[in-house]
Amino acid sequence: MAVGKVYLVGAGPGHPQLITLKGHELIRQADVIIYDRLIQEEILAGARADAERIYVGKQPGLHQSRQEVINATLVESARRARIVVRLKGGDPMLFGRGAEEAEYLAAHNIPFEVVPGVTAGLSVPMAAGIPVTHRDFSASVALVTGHRRDDKDTREVDWAALARIDTLVFFMSVGKLPEIAERLIAHGCPADTPAAIVQQAYWPGEHVVVGTLAQLPRLSEAAGIKPPATIVIGRVVQLRDRLTTLHRDLRRDSDEAVGFGLSSGSLFARLAGAARGSRDLEAALDLRLFDELDQPTHAAQLARQHGWDAQHLSEMLARLAGLGLLVRDQGLYRCSEAASRFLVTRSSEYQGSDLGAMLRAEQGYDPLKRLEPE
Predict the structure, then answer these.
(1) Does pTM surpass 0.85?
(2) Could you say which of 5, 31, 50, 58 is catalytic?
(3) Structural domain includes residue 252
């Protein structure tokens, strides 16, 4: 049997317009897409309707999919599919465990290719108006991870060397921010060095906190900063105040382009058009499934709660997940970001019962009867 090929693809810092053209094309062609927590569903909207999507996200402190399981999934998928896309936030080879996965694939004789992505180390600071280099302020940059292997800790970091670097960018370090500030100051970095933390750059929840190195841990905690967030330390941070005319055109409201030339309304219309053929979207709206699935829920639990046919409900949820309207993880379903944004921004225009009634009138079909027990 022929073995497929695995593409380790960098999805960029978050916004669907910031993935590379090759990455976009591979998503469109993929038979299997294995993706992380920091991948926005709009990026997956370009996938084929029949593409298999496997979520392997790891939340901070809650490693839902161990790396060994991900490695095995890559090999197993390549042995049964022609094109496998391993989709990672940022660049797969910069603190993304891409090298470990590439090693594993090579050891198991699986062909692979790396498709670079726009790294968060450069793009996230700029999202906040902070360039990491500048001829007047910074001739050196260090990219550092705050997340080490379980058997290592930050004591192995050469803090004296880092304290001499003009610009420092820390990944995965929100929980280590007090220690980072303490150690840098202890090794000679001035306490009043400008510093910033950028939460969810290019996502709807983007938030920037700016202060001095000594102040930033307290300011970050007061602002409720949570991962994902990137820390920037250095004199370049003060340029944020000068670059006041910076205006990104990567807006995230319902009337602006959100990915592949589509507005969020157009994106949902595209998904709705696909769903209309299988007659699942109108049923989901009439049953208010998206409200029910704001938290991960098992299909059997939902069926018992409402007295619905469990098999028909499971089949419906699986198809909705295939369309990108739901996310499936370890047997649990939750509403996708694309569906959530539509329901929030267009709820006054499209009520579930209205859309369901329109489609029933158009197709002569009542989707609710499908879920009635025999």
Answers:
(1) no
(2) 58
(3) no
Annotated catalytic, 153? no
**Which of these three, 212, 241, 270, is where a domain ends?**
241
Structural domain total, the chain: 3
Please tell me whether residues 112 and 131 are part of one structural domain. Answer: no
Q: Residue 350 is which amino acid?
A: Y
Is the bond preceding residue 228 a cis peptide, omega within 30 degrees? yes
**Catalytic residue selected from 36, 91, 280, 286:** 36
For residue 195, the enclosing domain spans: 122-241
Residues 161-205: pLDDT tens digits?
A: 999 999 999 999 999 999 999 999 999 999 999 999 999 998 877
Q: Please indicate whether residue 136 is annotated as part of the active site.
A: no
Residues 235 and 270 in one domain: no
Do 236 and 127 lie in a common domain? yes
Quick: pLDDT tens for 62-112.
454 578 989 999 999 999 999 999 999 999 999 989 999 999 999 999 999
Q: Where are the alpha helices (DSSP H) in the chain?
A: 21-29, 41-44, 67-78, 98-107, 120-127, 159-162, 177-186, 216-223, 264-278, 281-286, 289-292, 299-306, 310-322, 337-345, 352-363
